[in-house]
Each structure stands twice: as structure tokens, then as C-alpha cells.
Specification:
heterodimer, A: alpha/beta, D-Maltodextrin-Binding Protein, domain 2, 2 domains, 6-stranded mixed β-sheet, 4-stranded mixed β-sheet, 50% helix, B: mainly alpha, MetI-like fold, two-stranded antiparallel ribbon, 76% helix
Chain lengths: 422, 311
Amino acid sequence: MVKKILLILSVLAIVTVMIGCGPKEKKDVTVTFWHLDTQDDFKAAWQAQVDEFMALNPHVKIEITVLENEAFKQKVATMMQSGNPPDLFRSWGGGVMNQYAEAGLLRDVTKELKKGGFSDTIGAGPLGVYSYKGKVYGIPYNMGAVGIWYNKKMFADNGLSEFKTWNELIEGCKKLKAAGITPIALGEQDKWPGHFWFGYLAVRIAGGEAIQKAYAREGKFTDAPFVEAFVKLKELVDLGAFQKGFLGATYNDQASLTANRKAAMELMGQWAPSVQEQQTKDKKGLGSDLGFMAFPAVEGGAGDITDVFGGGDGFAFGVNAPDEAIDFMKFLMSKEQYKKLYDSPISFIPTVKGTSEWVQDPNMKAVADATSKAGFYQLYFDQAFPPAVGGAILDAVQGICAGTKTPEEAAGIIQKAWDEEK
Amino acid sequence: MGLQKSSNMKTSKFKEYWQNPRHKQAIIVATAFLTLPLIVYTVFVILPVFQAAYFSLYKWNGLGHLTNFKGVENFVKILTDPIFGMAIKNNFKIVVLSLLFQIPLSLIIALTIARRFKGAVFFRTIFFLPYILSEVIAGTIWSFIYNPQIGIQNTVLSDWIPWLANFQFLGSQDTVFASIFVVLIWKYFGLHMVILIAGLQGIPVELEEAAFIDGVNKWKLNWYIILPLLRPTIMLSLFFSMVGSFQTFDIVWAMGRGDPANGAETMVTYMYKFGFQRFQLGYGSAVAIIIFLITISVSVLYQKLTAEKEL
């Protein structure tokens, strides 16, 4: 009897040891990944990266959700309010991200990114946009500058060259209008495209110092230079520089007008060429006729022409993100994979160090140079500020465009919202 | 005392009813069936209303706990906000204009095609089609139609009517409301038409025949016989139209989110914009409570005004 028991026990022991020694099965993990590139080519590029990662890590399943820009912002906000953020989602950093971080809805990945020196491979400036109070919550893959994208042929035909000053821009618009050309395309229904105009005027007229003072509550948005920025924008609106019905047009309309030679220029970020390409039948956009110039200096303004208003794209980590989400981002940002992304139709200004020679296109090179040499870099206002203030800025700009607000009233709306945020 | 007595009577009546085994079974079955819906209704309708009322007293961005108690400050802010004033005005404009245009239009069409004639079904289908479309799709389609660069207005109509060439449709604070209201009529008149046709078909043909024998002409028939008999249906249609008007959101949102410059803002788009988009959930909840109160009072008032006459 005792023998029998001993035998059974020893068999059990051997079996247990054998199981214990066997190859450790990694636990299956699902990572939810949200982006907003709805164009087919772009979607395919992200899918390719995800597929490659999953092939190398069979235990990881990455579930992609793609939503159109506006819908994306709303859905993420709802998910955040429910306390259940996606593991990895498109973010612009800044005030909106900070608010999520403040509420403990994002995962602090500072330590994980330091491991193996990964965070040193990314530009410090761009990474700063995805940090809050010294902690990193996301990784940027794109950081660029807003500028004027113009039709070189239209400019040449009308005897125009790059605008160095605001007055040149105004004169140029008059000339184009006289020639029957819509000078500037704007999709003001979406509000943020118009806020680029105000943002750059504020950067040029008020300058970085005044903006930072107003942000620190040492100055006010109702101060003269900010009102002046609205006055200048109003000047442009009253001139009829924007296309007919621009208040009811979307950003896609704006890109389409520029790309199909129905307007001479648009003020937009580094993604403008790729979106323009999508808006033309041959998917080539303006081709070699597309030019890029910095936003002109404003006479008497405190800002410098090298100061940049812009921002980028990256991904932030939801608070429940598993380590595999970080692994995927590291995989994506590794030089080999990152180059594949760069060569895809998604156009961006790389944030990984030592990749500047990738940028060959002269326009994109100009954007990259402007970004890296910026004396002062201002993140988009609607992202730099908390949502309530960002929303007020967008409304103030639309009020100027619609002629329902005076420059003083518009500035007052912003300051009031900023006061309430205290 | 009187109340006590009547409730006592009720209990005894209930007991009597309960003692009948057949009734007993019916009550058990009814309770079993009603419990679940009641729970669902409480959890998803009643509770959220109270929850919103609670949120509305705080300044809260929807993330984390409610700590910043503000009392009625949100309500004061909303009621003194000129943009909310515009939103309320737009809502009432939709209600009144719907009563003036939508219902009469539906009624005329219903009277025309309710009778059986060749092609009646075809026309009914055609007129009902817009209602089947989802609001967002309808809004997007009309945005294309109104588009100043590629829309039909710019490409075709302005050649015939030069005045239209400068009309901005969705691109101006002055015209955006009218442009969207046209879509609202187009979208919903079919629904009212179908409701009214159903009502018309419930009116016995004998009445019409009798009236014709008495020498009544078509106009008098409609005015003195059909319309009075159709009254309950018309009232129902009006009620749907009114409640729907207060909730207008999707089409307005799809056609420019109530902008430019809040020209087409409705109460619900205001709530969504200032509540959800700006992360001011306390403020948004206060807006929701105000909408709730307005809708409830208008509905109750409507019931009071119409109930007596329906008897």
C-alpha cells in the first residue's frame, strides 16, 4: 500500500516538474489602438505596422479603431469620462493631455522609456509636448510647423513672391482678388483652421514672452497685442481674402480648393501636402507647384519671423495600457520600422534623432528646418489650453470671421474662459 | 381621514381580487413581466435624471470626483448666456414654423393621396423616403447641395436666379437657420403624412358617401367633416412635431454644428458643445436639466390645453 502511494506521489512529482520546466506560454494580451487616419493609404500603413508587430509577438493582439478627426476627439473624451481610456491613442499632447494626466487616466511611462536609452532617441522638444510635470505620457512621431502652403504658378502668374511682411500679404491678396482668384482657402466650419491665423498673428504681434505671461496669468489676453491680432484677422476677412461661404466649409473643402487650383494658398500644418494629394483625382496634389513659406512678420510686432506656431502627432498611453503597448511604440519608433512609416503615404516631420537626412522634399525640409530652428515654439492654442479655454478661443476666432464679435469682445471671451479655469 | 378611508377600501378591494385564484395568477405573471422593464427604466431613465440634477450643482470636467460645489451658479450662467438665448429662440422658431409649414403641408399631401388611385402608393413611398434616411446622412447630403463651390446652388441654380449667387446658405449666421429648417421639413413631413393618412383611413367611407348625397362639395367635405374627425390624429402629429423640435440635434450637428457664430444653435447642440466638448459636465448637466424642464412643461401644457376637447 505504502509502495503504491509512493509510486503515485513520485509520478505526480515528475509530472509536476515536467510541466514546470516546459516553455513558459506568454499570456495573451490585447492592446486597443486608436488613430484617426481614415484615408485608405494611411490606414493601410498603420495596419502594416501592427501586423508586423503581431507576427513577431503572437501573444499580442492589437485592435485598431479608426475614427474621423472630429468623431475621434468626441469619442476619446467620452471614453475618458467613463474612466476607460484606450491603451494607445492619438494625442496632440498639451492642455488636453495634461487634463487627462491630472485625472490619473494616463499611464506614466517615464521609467519604461528610459530603459535602454529609448527616450534619448527622440527629440527632447517634441517629447516635452507629451510630458506633464516631468512625467512622460506619450510618444510623438511627428512634430512640425504651420505655414503658408501656396500655389507657385498662381503666384508667378500674378507677379508675387514669398511674403516677408503682413502688408505684402494683404497687397498680394488684393492683387489675386483683382485677378479673379480666391487668395486664401479656409474651412472655418471646423474652427481650428481659422485659429491658425489668429495663433500666428498672436505669435508675431504679441510674441512668445507676452503669450507665456498671459498663460502664467501675469498678463491678459485682453492686452493690446492680442486685440491687435484679432484686428489684423478682421482686416483679412473684410478684404474678402477667403473663399465664398468659408464659414460653412470644412478643412477638407479647404484642402480641396487649394489642391485643385481654386485658391492660391492655405495656412496649414505639415500634413497639408498629403491631404491635398488625397483631394485630387490623380492623387498628386499640386505637385511641384506647391510651395511653403513661413508666416510673414507683422510690422512692429514683438515676435520674430522664425518663431513657430505648430504641433505634432503622437500616441498617449491609457492608464490601463499593458507593457505590450509600450513595446509596440518602441517597435514603431525603431529606425527600421519608422523609416517604413516615413516612406508610406503618411507625411510627417520625424521626431527620431538622426533622421533629418530622410527629409528630401524641399517643402518638408523647410518645415523641418523651421521647427528645429524655432526661436520660440507655440503649440496650437486649442491643444495647449484646457478644452474649455481652447473652445472659447475657437469661438472667438469664428466670431471675428462671421463679423459678430469685435476684436475687443473676442479677446474678452478668451480671458473670461481662462479666468474661469483657475 | 377621507384619504385613509379610500385607501382602506382599495386594500380590501385588492384583497378580494387577490383571493380569486385566477386573478392571483394574472397578478403574479404581470408582476414577473413588469419587474424587469421597471428596473431597466429606473436604472437608465429615472436615475440618470437625478444624477444629472446632482452633477448640475458642481463645476466638474467629468474626470475624477465631484469636489467643486457651485450651487445654482451653472444655472445662472446658462440663463444669462446670450448664446443659450439664441438656442432657445431657435428651438421655439422650429416649433412654431413646423406648426405653420410642416403640418399643413403634410395634411394637404395626405388629403390628396390618401384615397386609392393609380400611383398613390408610389407617391406615398416617394414622400416617405427622406424619413427613412438617417439624420446624419441627410445632413451630409444637404451639406453637399448647399456647398458654395460644388453644390447645385452654385453650379445650376444661380444661373437661373442671379439673386442666389450671393446666398451663403450654411456659410452665414443669417441664412444657416433657414437653410437647415428647409431640411427639417423635407426630412419629417413624410412621417406626419403617414400618420395623417392612417387617421384618414380610419374615417368610414360611408360618411363621405352620405355627405356627397347631401350635396356637399369636396372643400366643404374636407373642412366640416374630415378635419374635425381627423382632429385626434392631427393633435398627435402636432405633439410629435413639438417634442421632436425641442430635441433637434443630429441634422443641425451634421450641417455645421450649430455654427457659424451660433446661428443655428439649438438647446441640445448647446448642451453638447459646452458640456461634452469642453469637458464641463456639470455645466452640461445643468443645460440638460433646463431642457428637461422646458420640454416637460410644454408637454404638460399641451396635454392640458387639448385634453378637454378630445372628449
